[in-house]
User: Which sequence fits this backbone?
């Protein structure tokens, strides 16, 4: 600094700016230092005290085969197209297993059905289920009047739970009490959330087209042809 060719005036300006910056920073440093010093003294005095951690603790993993839910409820049997009372068991592999009855489950019999609800959606009303069905499977010849439309599955009880799955048969369950409906619906949502963890979402139809082999090159050629057409049209336009 002393040998600077810019002269002593430049040195004075730089020194003044440095002193001003330090002066503005000093009050903040003093306050922070006081807080840090007090925390240091407190930790030295209370070094044998157990502090409560504010971090979330991971629950220990459950033993394989731990039962999360078991109850007897009404399930629509797809093989006979009728409602049957089944004993439903959900373990910590998040699969929904259906048994003939509780005795069959306790004797170790094979389940009548086993559903992994990954990628599914839980619905608790017939209207919601019908709207979702119409959205995914529209009927082009159906009339616009829905008053006389017959339900897809006649419910034996008041509180249903629909398990919608994109590429599998849907699950239909029914309860006589709303509390049991909410409990089972919440359980299915937890199973779906755990099974969906780490899964990539299903791509839309345009994304599926672009990810097919050779389709990206087709799209590039199509875009180039559109550009050429646009340039030709621009050349023909009068100035």
Assistant:
């Amino acid at each position: 600094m002393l040998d600077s060719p810019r002269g002593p005036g430049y040195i004075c300006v730089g020194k003044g700016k440095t002193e001003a910056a330090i002066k503005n920073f000093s009050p903040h440093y003093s306050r922070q230092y006081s807080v840090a010093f007090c925390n240091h003294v407190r930790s030295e005095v209370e070094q044998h005290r157990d502090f409560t951690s504010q971090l979330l603790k991971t629950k220990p993993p459950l033993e394989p085969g731990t039962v999360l839910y078991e109850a007897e409820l009404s399930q629509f049997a797809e093989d006979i197209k009728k409602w049957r009372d089944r004993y439903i068991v959900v373990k910590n592999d998040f699969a929904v297993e259906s048994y003939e009855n509780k005795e069959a489950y306790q004797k170790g019999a094979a389940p009548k059905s086993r559903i992994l609800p990954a990628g599914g959606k839980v619905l608790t009303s017939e209207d919601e289920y019908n709207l979702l069905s119409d959205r995914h499977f529209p009927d082009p010849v159906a009339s616009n009047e829905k008053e006389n439309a017959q339900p897809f599955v006649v419910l034996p009880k008041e509180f249903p739970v629909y398990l919608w799955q994109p590429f599998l048969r849907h699950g239909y369950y029914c309860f006589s009490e709303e509390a049991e409906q909410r409990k089972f619906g919440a359980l299915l949502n937890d199973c779906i959330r755990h099974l969906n963890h780490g899964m990539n979402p299903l791509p839309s139809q345009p994304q599926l087209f672009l990810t097919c082999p050779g389709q990206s090159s087709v799209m590039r050629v199509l875009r180039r042809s559109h550009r050429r057409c646009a340039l030709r049209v621009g050349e023909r336009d009068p100035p």
Notes: Helices lie at 8-45, 102-106, 126-136, 178-196, 205-211, 215-236. The chain is about 45% helix and 20% strand. Residues 1-41 form one domain. The beta strands are 67-77, 82-91, 96-99, 113-115, 121-123, 159-164, 171-175.
